[in-house]
Amino acid sequence: MGYNDLVLSLQSLIMVRHGESTGNVARAMAVATGLEDMGIPERDADVPLSENGRAQAKALGRWLATLPEEKRPTVVLSSPYVRALETARIALEGIDAGEVRLDERLRDRELGALYGLTPKGVTARFPEEAARKEHTGKFYYRPPGGEAWTDVALRLRVLLADLDRAHPGQRVLVFSHDAVIVLARYILENLSEAEILEIEKTPLANCSVTSWINRNGTPHLLRYNDLSPLNELDGRGVNGCV
C-alpha cells in the first residue's frame, strides 16, 4: 500500500490545530525574556486554552456553521489533550456534528525530559542532547523519554489507515497539534524529509485549518495553515508549539 492509499475512501479530511494555549503564551514570554524554563505548571496533556484561544475556537465555530450541508463534517475526532478537546467542544457548540471521539494517536509529540524547556534551556541543561539533535537532525532526533517526528508519523499512519477503513465516503474533522498536522502532509502527500522540513519552517498557527479532498482517488491539499476563519480576530495567537 502506498502512502496516498490511506485516505482514498474518505470524501474529505479537515485538520485543525488547537487554539492558543496558556503554554503557547508561556513559551513566547520565556523565549522573549531569555529564560531556560517556560514555567508551565501542568503536564502536557493538561495545558488549557488561553482566553484568546477560546475566542479563536468560537470564531472557528462560526466558520464551521457557514459550511454548506454537503461540506460539513460527519465524523469528528480529537486529541485527548485538554487544549485540543477544548477547541473542539467550543468550536462545535451548537453544531450537529455528532460525538467527538478521542484518540490518543492524535496527541502532541512527546518531548520527554526536554518538556517545558526553551531552546536556551535545552542547550544549558542538556548540552549533549543539543549536540545530538544538531547531528541527527530535527526529523529523526528522539529526546530522552520522548518521540522523534518519525514516531509520531508511525502512529499517525495507523490512525489514517483506520479512518480510511472505518469511514468510507465520510467527511472527517480532526482537532490536534502542529506536529501531527505537519506530518499528515508528509504522509498523505508522500513528501520527503527535506520537503516537510522546508514546509515546517513556517509555524503552524493556532486554530489554523488544513484540509484535503478526495480527487479521483488521491488526497488533494485544499488549504494549509489557513487563518481565514479567524479574520475577525486579526490573526492573533501564533505563539509557537505547545
Q: What would the keywords be for this entry?
A:
242 residues, six-stranded mixed beta sheet, 8 helices, 6 strands, globular, disordered C terminus
Q: How is the topology of this model organized?
A:
Layout: E1 12-17, H1 22-32, H2 51-66, E2 75-78, H3 82-91, E3 100-102, H4 119-125, H5 127-136, H6 149-166, E4 171-176, H7 178-188, H8 193-200, E5 209-215, E6 218-226
Parallel strand pairs: 1-4, 2-3, 2-4
Antiparallel strand pairs: 1-5, 5-6
Helical region count? 8
Give the overall shape.
globular
In whole angstroms, the N-to-C terminal distance is 33 Å
- Which consecutive residue ranges, at least 5 long each, have pLDDT under 50? 235-242
Q: What is the alpha-carbon Rg in Å?
A: 18 Å
Order of helices and strands: EHHEHEHHHEHHEE
Largest sheet: 6 strands, mixed
Helical proportion, percent range? 25-40%
Number of strands: 6
User: What is the overall pLDDT average?
Assistant: 92
Strands in their spatial order, largest beta sheet:
3-2-4-1-5-6
Estimate what percentage of residues fall within beta strands.
Answer: 5-15%
Give the class from helix and strand content and strand pairing. Answer: alpha/beta
